[in-house]
Amino acid sequence: MEKAIAIITARGGSKRIPGKNIKNFCGKPIIAYSIEAALKSGLFSEVMVSTDSQKIAQIAQEYRASVPFMRSAKTSDDYATTSDVIMEVMDNYKKLGRTFEYICCIYPTAPFVTAQKLIAAQTIMEEKHPVMVMPMTAFSYPPQRCYVMNDDGFMGYKYPQYSRTRSQDLEKQYHDAGQFYVYNAEKYLALHGQVNEGVMPIIVSELEVQDIDNEDDWKIAELKYQLMASR
């Protein structure tokens, strides 16, 4: 059994940002940041890209990632989940006679991933033995104080019982930073990719977190990256 594999999930069919996974981000294809962080960490016997796109595969290989097989049509449509992709990849490796103790899934549009974060996550896995480690950040505004809109267009508190509670007295809550996940492979596969407990975090700042779903998100992410790089 090999120790760890990095899987970068890079489907080619992005509609909101065409070519998203290989679009230029501050000077190089955005997927390069994930590949380079994984390689620099020295944690993995293989850094592979799961894709259905020959163009993405070519660029991934230029940055020294492997593409040992292409993604199937079943895991290339809009309904396939990240866990669907990982399960397929691991099944393909099993057929090749290769198994891994740890799986690290890295998103291809995650320029804030660093080798240091990957190493920190792996250290937690080996010392604390959770099912999964992932970067998380605290909500900047308490979710308990959120508003929702009814059918008539009026706004009201989702949780009115907290409407007069001081923000600092509310429970601190966190969300996925959208960068990577490290799994205990045996536990993850036994759960068929459905991890609901046994999760430990690496806490990261809001400055290092940005979903990239549209062009505005992309511009914000570049500004954040440039600010971080200038520190």
Architecture blueprint of SSEs:
Elements: E1 2-9, E2 24-25, E3 28-29, H1 31-41, E4 46-50, H2 54-62, H3 82-95, E5 100-106, H4 115-128, E6 132-138, E7 147-149, E8 155-157, E9 174-176, E10 180-184, H5 185-190, E11 199-203, H6 215-229
Parallel strand pairs: 1-4, 1-5, 6-11
Antiparallel strand pairs: 2-3, 5-10, 6-9, 6-10, 7-8
Helix pairs in contact: 1-4
Give short descriptive properties of this protein.
single chain, alpha/beta, two-stranded antiparallel ribbon, 11 strands, about 230 residues
Order of helices and strands: EEEHEHHEHEEEEEHEH
In terms of structural class, how would the helical and strand content be classed?
A: alpha/beta
Mean pLDDT: 95
Stretches with pLDDT under 50, minimum 5 residues: none
Radius of gyration using CA atoms only: 19 Å
How many individual helices? 6
How many beta-strand segments? 11
Oligomer: single chain
Helix content: 25-40%
Our measurement of the CA-to-CA distance between the termini, rounded to an integer number of angstroms, reads 41 Å
Major sheet: 7 strands, mixed
